[in-house]
């Protein structure tokens, strides 16, 4: 029975091949653009999540400043000092704390100069180990910074591989000048995948304090909690501690304490809004495609009025007729969905590789989770059936006599 | 003759009213989306243009290089000083030049502390360079004047009764606290629709130096070109002079010199890319709508095969048949375009209204230019005729005998 319906629907679609194709195109264009956009959004989300996972769920980041303040913007009034560092280290539940300085500095070599991020890191072996565990500052060539290093620098991947930065690529053993001071290159950092991180230079914090004259000011405190499960209460305790030490009221902090989870969520929610807007706009084409299906189905009902009359005359019920037409429109949706998904996957991958090459980043990639494919397929079938409901109802309500007489 | 063609096309469209409507819906959805998005982005483009227009078109702006954040975030190590201002003032072609200093500071009002970008403007003769700027227009009270100390002009956001920077609105005559100094609020700035500007606090530069302990530093230098001097060539001269006084080679500048025009172009080119992506995605639905027209026209040709045969038999030329079908599809597109432009206009005006009620920003505004309306209509007509071309050619090439015999 059901196979008869299916065969009938396919027959009638094949009969008006051109029209069926054009209707299909209308659907798969919409599905393809939505699949491509979602896959890019998901890929970005996944790449960001992976980076945060590497950071670990037991990390807390303390930054100076209230609402304003990207890393390194160190506002005059808001600062983190040695006293804050002590407060954080003494907070129960805190295992290790690494303080660091992040500034934009003038870097010279081969008579060329650039302005890039210079990071001052503490050389305490425990602190270095903690940062290394998060995948930060892993050397691929040479070695990383270690206790006792003075005027040594570990340079970002791009400075060692791309001569657009400092005229010539730099090697371990070369000299560079940061803010006019001579540093020896002892290592090259692993590729991170974004230009800012891959062009930064890591130096001992004592040297950074000297060249940037920061006194006892830090730009970041990076905290590891003893127990990842207690992370939120540890963050709360740190907040309370610094507030007390600075005698500030709750809600008026001039510093920010965020767990790695919170950081990830704030990134994720911005990403979700952007993806939602783009998908919303792309979905308009799917509505238009749905209207196209409706049109095709109305035409189909009209052309087959006599046929419907005959079917009814020999005993077909209203529900049978309705079913036949719904299968037909659902089938258009399904096939449109399949082609659309394949096309969208191709499109997403191509867009991702072009963008990644143009922006020198590994963050942009297309990702196709199972639910995206199944969801898109289900959605296209639903669009097909919904668009077919009105025409199918019109067909099922035809009176046999009228339908037979229709020319 | 052409009138007859039109009458024929219109009566055909009316004959299959439902199908014509569905086809038109397919077009007007796409046109409405594109028109709404273009008008909104045009509005944003214009609003940003206004912000830059308030900068004047005869200015050259000099900033330290490597500043990624807004002025005053001072994460960069390079600085401009009064010596640089001297060099700029002495450059031939410069009418007037002055610099300002800015910092992010904690601003205290009514027991609340918030961080704001505080701009210190000169209170000597350099003040004129800034008072002439549209940016510093006042809606209430007065601007900083020569010889002022401990006076403040606040941005519009600070004076909002609800949803502003502070819980209690800042008013003229009240005092705000920065550092350990108390400032009398003497004026309120005109809102510019950009939170960066509208949350700023303007104070005399000497007072800002007192708070921050900065002795000789300028965040940005403004130079006004003499009448008849091209700002872009003046920028080159300033660059050369600064390079010489700072002893730097070409390409190694640690400062950047831009005309206000160049600054505006940079921003609008970024905005242009975002616009192009969004409108491109919306345009996909137009493509789908076009395919809908093609489908409708093929069906129409098929249904009227006999009619075409008769027309040809009584002497209609191929070109006549072609014209008849092209007019029909063009009409579908044009009607869709008319409705789409109307809906798109209504949609973007609604968005503008809602956005204004929620955020009170002039940045989200719908602007309609004649070329947008005519362009959209012409484009929809073009889509109609282009989609109808293949079906119309099919109709035109039919052989009369076969067409008459077709059932």
Written account of the structure:
The complex is a heterodimer of chains A (407) and B (407). In chain A, 44% of the residues are buried. Chain A contains 13 helices and 10 strands. Chain A starts with a helix and ends with a helix. Chain A has 2 domains: 2-52 and 265-405, no CATH class; 59-226, no CATH class. Mean pLDDT of chain A is 85; it is low at 67-77. With 407 residues, chain A is of the alpha+beta class. Chain B has 407 residues and is of the alpha+beta class. In chain B, 54% of the residues lie in helices and 17% in strands. Chain B is built from 12 helices and 10 strands. Chain B has helices spanning 2-15, 17-53, 82-90, 127-131, 195-198, 205-212, 231-246, 260-303, 305-313, 318-359, 370-396, 400-405; strands at residues 59-64, 94-109, 112-121, 138-141, 151-154, 175-178, 181-189, 201-204, 220-225, 255-259. Chain B has a 6-stranded mixed β-barrel with strand order 2-3-8-5-7-6. In chain B, strand 6 (175-178) and strand 7 form a beta hairpin. The longest helix of chain B has 44 residues, at 260-303. The two termini of chain B are 30 Å apart. The chains are: A alpha+beta (407), B alpha+beta (407). At the A-B interface, helix 2, strand 2, strand 3 and helix 9 of A face helix 2, strand 2, strand 3 and helix 8 of B.
Outline of the structure:
With 407 residues, chain A is of the alpha+beta class.
Hey, roughly how much beta strand do the residues of chain B contain?
15-25%
How many separate domains make up the residues of chain A?
2
Shape of chain B: elongated
Taking the sheet with the most strands of chain B, its summary is: 6 strands, mixed, barrel
Count of individual beta strands of chain B: 10
Helical fraction of chain B equals 40-55%
Q: Helix fraction of chain A?
A: 55-70%
Strand line-up in the sheet with most strands of chain A = 2-3-8-5-7-6
- The ordered string of helix (H) and strand (E) elements of chain B is HHEHEEHEEEEHEHEHEHHHHH
Stretches with pLDDT under 50, minimum 5 residues of chain B = 67-75
DSSP summary, beta strand count of chain A? 10
Q: Whole-Å distance between the termini of chain A?
A: 30 Å
Briefly note the structural class of the backbone of chain B: alpha+beta
Instruction: Describe the strand arrangement of the main beta sheet of chain B, using strand numbers.
Output: 2-3-8-5-7-6
Terminal CA distance of chain B reads 30 Å
Overall mean confidence score, pLDDT of chain A: 85
Most extensive interface between two protein chains, with residue counts? A-B, 54 and 50 residues
Shape of chain A: elongated
Number of domains of chain B: 2
Number of helices of chain A: 13
- Counting DSSP H or I runs of 4 or more residues, the number of helices of chain B is 12
């Amino acid at each position: 029975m059901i196979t008869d319906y299916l065969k009938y629907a396919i027959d009638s679609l094949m009969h008006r091949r051109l029209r069926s194709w054009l209707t299909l195109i209308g659907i798969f264009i919409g599905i393809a653009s939505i699949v491509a956009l979602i896959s890019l959004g998901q890929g970005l989300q996944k790449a960001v999540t992976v980076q945060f996972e590497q950071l670990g769920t037991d990390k807390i980041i303390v930054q100076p400043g209230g609402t304003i303040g990207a890393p390194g913007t160190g506002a005059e009034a808001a600062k983190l000092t040695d006293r804050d560092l002590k407060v954080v280290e003494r907070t129960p539940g805190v295992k290790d704390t690494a303080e660091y300085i992040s500034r934009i500095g003038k870097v010279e070599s081969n008579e060329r100069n650039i302005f890039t991020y210079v990071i001052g890191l503490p050389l305490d072996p425990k602190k270095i180990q903690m940062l290394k565990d998060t995948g930060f500052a892993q050397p691929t060539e040479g070695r990383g910074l270690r206790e006792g290093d003075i005027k040594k620098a570990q340079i970002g991947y791009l400075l060692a591989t791309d001569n657009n930065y400092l005229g010539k690529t730099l090697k371990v053993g070369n000299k560079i000048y940061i803010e006019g001071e001579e540093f020896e290159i002892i290592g090259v950092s692993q590729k991170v995948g974004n230009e800012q991180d891959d062009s930064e230079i890591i130096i001992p914090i004592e040297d950074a304090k000297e060249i940037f004259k920061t006194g006892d000011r830090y730009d970041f405190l990076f905290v590891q909690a003893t127990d990842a499960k207690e992370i939120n209460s540890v963050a709360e305790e740190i907040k309370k501690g610094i507030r007390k030490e600075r005698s500030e009221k709750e809600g008026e902090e001039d510093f920010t304490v965020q767990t790695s989870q919170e950081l990830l969520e704030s990134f994720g929610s911005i990403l979700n809004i952007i993806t939602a807007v783009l998908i919303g706009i792309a979905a308009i084409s799917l509505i238009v495609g749905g209207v196209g299906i409706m049109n095709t189905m109305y035409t189909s009902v009209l052309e087959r009025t006599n046929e419907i009359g005959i079917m009814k005359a020999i005993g077909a019920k209203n529900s049978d007729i309705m079913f036949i037409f719904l299968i037909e429109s659902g089938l258009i949706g399904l096939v449109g969905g399949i082609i659309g998904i394949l096309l969208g996957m191709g499109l997403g991958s191509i867009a991702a590789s072009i963008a990644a090459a143009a922006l020198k980043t590994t963050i942009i990639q297309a990702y196709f989770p199972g639910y995206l494919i199944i969801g898109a397929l289900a959605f296209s079938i639903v669009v097909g059936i919904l668009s077919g409901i009105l025409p199918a109802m019109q067909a099922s309500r035809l009176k046999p006599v009228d339908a037979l007489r229709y020319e | 003759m052409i009138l007859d063609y039109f009458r024929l096309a219109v009566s055909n469209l009316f004959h299959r009213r439902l199908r014509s409507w569905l086809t038109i819906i397919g077009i007007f959805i796409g046109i409405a989306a594109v028109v709404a998005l273009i008008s909104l982005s045009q509005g944003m483009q214009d609003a940003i243009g206004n912000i830059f227009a308030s900068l004047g078109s005869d200015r050259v702006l000099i900033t330290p290089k490597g500043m990624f954040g807004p002025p005053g975030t001072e994460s960069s190590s390079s600085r401009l000083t009064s010596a640089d201002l001297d060099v700029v003032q002495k450059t031939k072609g410069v009418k007037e030049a002055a610099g300002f200093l800015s910092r992010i500071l904690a601003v205290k009002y009514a027991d609340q502390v918030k961080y704001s970008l505080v701009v210190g403007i000169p209170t000597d003769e350099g003040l004129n360079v800034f008072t002439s700027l549209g940016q510093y227009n006042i809606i209430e009270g007065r601007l900083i004047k020569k010889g002022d100390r401990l006076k403040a002009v606040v941005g519009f956001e600070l004076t909002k009764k609800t949803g502003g920077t502070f819980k209690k609105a800042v008013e003229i005559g009240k005092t705000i606290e920065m550092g350990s100094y108390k400032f009398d609020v003497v004026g309120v700035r005109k809102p510019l629709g950009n939170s960066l500007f509208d949350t700023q606090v303007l104070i005399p530069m000497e007072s800002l130096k007192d708070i921050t302990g900065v002795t000789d530093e300028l965040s940005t230098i403004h130079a006004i070109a003499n009448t008849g001097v091209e700002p872009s060539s003046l920028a080159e001269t300033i660059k050369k002079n600064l390079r010489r006084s700072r002893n730097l080679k070409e390409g190694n500048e640690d400062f950047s010199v831009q005309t206000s025009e160049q600054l505006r172009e940079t921003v609008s080119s970024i905005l242009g890319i975002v616009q192009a992506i969004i409108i491109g995605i919306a345009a996909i639905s137009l493509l789908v709508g076009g395919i809908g027209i093609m489908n409708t026209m093929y069906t129409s040709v098929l249904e009227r095969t006999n009619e075409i045969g008769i027309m040809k038999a009584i002497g209609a030329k191929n070109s006549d048949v072609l014209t008849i079908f092209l007019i029909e599809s063009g009409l579908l597109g044009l009607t869709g375009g008319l409705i789409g432009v109307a809906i798109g206009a209504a949609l973007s005006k609604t968005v503008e209204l809602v956005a204004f009620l929620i955020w009170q920003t002039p940045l989200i505004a719908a602007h309609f230019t004649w070329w947008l309306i005519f362009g959209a209509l012409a484009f929809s007509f073009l889509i109609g005729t282009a989609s109808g071309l293949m079906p119309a050619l099919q109709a035109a090439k039919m052989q009369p005998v076969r067409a008459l015999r077709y059932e």
